[in-house]
C-alpha cells in the first residue's frame, strides 16, 4: 500500500490505501468538528470562511482560519520534502516513514487534547490536525499519482460523477465498451474512498464521544501498524532483490 508507486500499483492496492487512510482521516475530521466546531481538512470551507471574515473586518477570526490553511499547506510541503529526500537516498519505504511520522505527531496531539487546558485545545488541535492531514494527503497523492485522495471527498465526488456519466455513455453505446473495465475500476475506487470517509467519520464521532482525545492515540496506533507493515514488506522485498542480484 505504501511501497509501490504510480503505475506499479494496482486496483486492489489503491482501494486498500483509500479504505484505510480515508477512514482514519474521516474519523479525525468529523471528531474535530464534533469536539471544537472546526474542520481540519476541508480547505475549501476554511478558505471561504476566511474570505467571509476578511470581508467583515473580523481580523482575529480571519487569522485563525488563515492559520488552518497555512498549516495544511505546510504539512503537504513537509511531507513532500521528506519523500523527495528519501527518494534521493533510495529509501524504498519513504512513504511509509512519512505516515509513521504522521502517527507519532498524531499521538502527541492526542496527548495535548487530553491534558491541555480548555483555552488551548482549539488553537493547538485544529491547526495540528490540519498539518497532519496535509502530510497524509501529500503522501497519498504522490504515491498514487493523484488517483487517490483520503483527507477530503470533494475531488472524489467530482470524479465519481464523471465516471458515472461515462458509464452511462458506455451503456448507451456512445463510448467504446473497451473502456468499461477501466471505468468500473475508477468507480469502485471513488465509492470506496467516499464510503470509508463517511464510515470513519461516524465511528470517529461515536468513539470521541466515548473516550475523547484517546481517539487520536488510537488512530495513531492504526497508522503505526500500517506504516510498520509497509516498512517490513519493503525491507523483505529489498533483501530478496539483493539476494537475486548477488547470485
Walk me through what this model shows:
This protein has 247 residues and is mostly helical. Helices cover 81% and strands 0% of the residues. α1 (11-36) packs antiparallel against α5 (118-143) and α1 runs antiparallel to α8. The chain is globular. The model has no long low-confidence stretch (mean pLDDT 88). The chain crosses the membrane at residues 21-39, 59-82, 94-116, 122-140, 187-208, 214-231. It holds the Pfam family DUF1275. This is YoaK family protein. It comes from Rhizobium calliandrae. Keywords: Membrane, Transmembrane, Transmembrane helix.
Task: Note the topology.
Elements lengths: L10 H26 L6 H13 L3 H30 L5 H22 L2 H26 L10 H18 L8 H32 L2 H33 L1
Protein name: YoaK family protein
Keywords: Membrane, Transmembrane, Transmembrane helix
Amino acid at each position: 500500500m505504501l511501497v509501490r508507486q504510480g503505475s506499479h500499483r494496482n486496483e486492489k492496492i489503491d482501494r486498500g490505501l483509500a479504505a484505510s487512510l480515508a477512514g482514519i482521516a474521516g474519523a479525525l475530521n468529523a471528531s474535530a468538528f464534533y469536539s471544537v466546531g472546526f474542520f481540519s481538512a476541508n480547505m475549501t470551507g476554511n478558505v471561504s470562511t476566511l474570505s467571509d471574515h476578511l470581508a467583515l473586518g473580523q481580523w482575529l477570526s480571519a487569522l485563525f482560519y488563515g492559520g488552518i490553511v497555512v498549516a495544511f499547506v505546510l504539512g503537504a510541503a513537509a511531507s513532500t520534502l521528506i519523500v523527495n529526500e528519501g527518494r534521493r537516498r533510495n529509501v524504498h519505504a519513504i512513504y511509509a516513514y512519512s505516515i509513521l511520522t504522521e502517527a507519532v505527531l498524531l499521538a502527541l496531539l492526542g496527548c495535548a487534547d487530553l491534558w491541555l487546558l480548555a483555552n488551548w485545545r482549539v488553537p493547538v488541535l485544529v491547526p495540528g490536525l490540519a498539518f497532519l492531514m496535509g502530510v497524509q494527503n501529500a503522501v497519498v497523492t504522490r504515491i498514487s499519482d493523484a488517483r487517490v485522495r483520503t483527507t477530503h471527498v470533494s475531488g472524489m465526488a467530482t470524479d465519481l460523477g464523471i465516471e458515472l456519466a461515462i458509464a452511462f455513455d458506455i451503456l448507451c453505446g456512445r463510448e467504446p465498451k473497451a473502456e468499461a473495465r477501466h471505468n468500473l475500476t475508477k468507480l469502485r475506487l471513488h465509492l470506496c474512498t467516499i464510503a470509508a470517509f463517511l464510515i470513519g467519520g461516524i465511528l470517529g464521532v461515536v468513539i470521541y464521544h466515548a473516550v475523547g482525545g484517546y481517539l487520536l492515540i488510537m488512530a495513531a496506533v492504526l497508522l503505526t501498524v500500517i506504516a510498520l507493515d509497509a516498512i517490513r514488506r519493503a525491507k523483505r522485498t529489498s533483501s530478496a532483490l539483493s539476494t537475486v542480484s548477488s547470485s
